[in-house]
Amino acid sequence: MTTGFSRASIRFPAFQHIWVPSSSRRAAGAGISMYSPCVAPAILAQRALYVAVRLLGPKILPGRRESWSEPIEADAWQIFVDEWRDSFGPWDSAALYRRPQLGRTGCTLLLLRRGRGVGFVRISPDSARVAREFLVMKGVHAARPSTFAIARPLGWGTEAGWSWLGTESVPNYPLGAVRRQSVRHAVAEEISAILDGFLDRPADDVPSDWRGSHGDFAPWNLRTELSGRVRVIDWEDAAFAPANVDLLYGDLTSHLTFGTPLPPLASMDSARWITEVVRQRLAPEEGANSINSRLLELLATVPVA
User: pTM of the full predicted structure?
Assistant: First the structure.
């Protein structure tokens, strides 16, 4: 049985859903970078912590020292580990991210070799969704977008009711968030143009004026590198939708996150589509302050036509 990697981690209070590798300074910094804050104070705090860890090592991090256990059944996990070694080459530690959102299942791992990311893997119970996302990412990456970057997809697999999707590693330092509406709109338009070119359009139930959309076009999925380049992540909800859905969803989530202006008007079709999608994501346990609940409440205040 292949077990040649370290699970020694720190699950510290600030990121209860992230297990940060404690094997080295570089590995700990990469683990901290899996957190995706959007507001300025949280981004600055993350960057300060990243610098401190890179200088002083993981010993400065508060929290429980522990080795995480397999996030799925042992047999499927072992098969996946072997498949990842085939896809990404050798790796010696990993940062583990368990989704904190109610109603979202699965987890994500950043595979590391000597503290450097060699692969990014998401595990999900929905094999059809994983297979589709792999094809979407493959098509978008092949289009060589000019307004944003996307991680190159490297493989996927399925076993015992679980599936994985693997890509090249994203940058292993804290990324920023897109605040400017003009940048967000340019990225959304190029995404639609690219997806329109290769997504299969079911003839029976998709109106002809619907366009390809990212489907979760929120600040936490639009990150900025040190160079200023926008990196778009999390393509599992990409699909045809009413035109400008991504623009409206981006404006709504940016208002909740940054306090940016709301659109003066929204199309009826886009508002209905977002309402239906958010209600499907809304878990019974979510309270009034959850992002999904607040989105629904905010959307009801935007005039539609």
Answer: 0.92
